[in-house]
Amino acid sequence: MKRKKSDYRRNVGVAIFNAQGQIWLGKRFGEDGPHVWQCPQGGIDKGEKPKAAARRELFEETGLRAKEMEYLGKVKGWLYYDFPPEILAKKKKRFINKGQRQKWYAFRYFGDGSDVNLTAHGPQEFSEWRWAELNSIADTIVPFKRAVYEQLIVEFADFARPVN
After folding, report:
1. HEC profile for the chain?
2. Residue 2: pLDDT above 80?
3. Which residue in 17, 93, 109, 118 has the fewest CB atoms around it within 10 Å?
4. What pTM was estimated for this model as a whole?
5. Please, which pLDDT band fits residue 136 given cuts at 50, 70 and 90?
6. Phi/psi of residue 16, nearest 5 degrees
7. Distance CA 7, CA 10 (A)
8. Backbone angles phi, psi at 24, to 5 degrees
9. Domain edges within the chain
10. CA 163 to each of CA 25, 68, 105, 106: distance values in angstroms, whole numbers, following the listed order
11. Which residues partner with 79 through β-bridges?
12. Given a cut of 90, is residue 93 above it in pLDDT?
């Protein structure tokens, strides 16, 4: 299916891998259930470059700074997802996008987690966080974003290995 870029809000996603090759997941604030865990993500501001947006979103949602991590790479191109009808109905009041197109970036974090600050910048996105195996992330995300996370499993597989 051919998608019209202008129908999708520009967005970034950030995959944070630890030295053991696990990926950082946050539990969406105020939500419960099996599909409430995801990676940091957010919109790209007008005039902002995608990589700069990824660094900003990383700090705003986790308190972590990209300059203190190893940059690993990015997904080539954009990954798309569509909002389901019930979310589209709610969002129509704020904006008219059918979904989001995301540019994903990966970083290696070597800290012990003590510098994670989920309230670094309001409004708070996550209520808690954990490390997970990359191949499990498609099961933790809301179903309408699942195809993006399945693609991340493939694209970022090399980063999900322990480093010496």
Report:
1. CCCCHHHEEEEEEEEEECCCCCEEEEEECCCCCCCCEECCEEECCCCCCHHHHHHHHHHHHHCCCHHHCEEEEECCCCEEEECCHHHHHHHCCCCCCCEEEEEEEEEECCCCCCCCCCCCCCCCCEEEEEEECHHHHHHCCCHHHHHHHHHHHHHCHHHCCCCC
2. no
3. 93
4. 0.93
5. very high
6. -110, 120
7. 10
8. -80, 130
9. 7-113+124-157
10. 19, 17, 18, 15
11. 102
12. no
Give Cβ neighbours of residue 12 (< 8 Å, ≥ 6 apart): 41, 42, 43, 44, 50, 53, 54, 57, 102, 103, 104, 105
Instruction: Tell the residue number behind the tokens 């974090």, with chain if given.
Output: 109
**Start-to-end C-alpha separation, the chain:** 42
User: Would the pLDDT of 45 be above 70?
Assistant: yes
Q: How far apart are CA 23 and CA 159, in angstroms?
A: 9
pLDDT of res. 91 = 63
Mean pLDDT of the chain: 94
Does domain 7-113+124-157 fall into CATH 3.90.79.10?
Answer: yes
Of the CA atoms within 13 Å of residue 13, those in its CB half-sphere come to 27
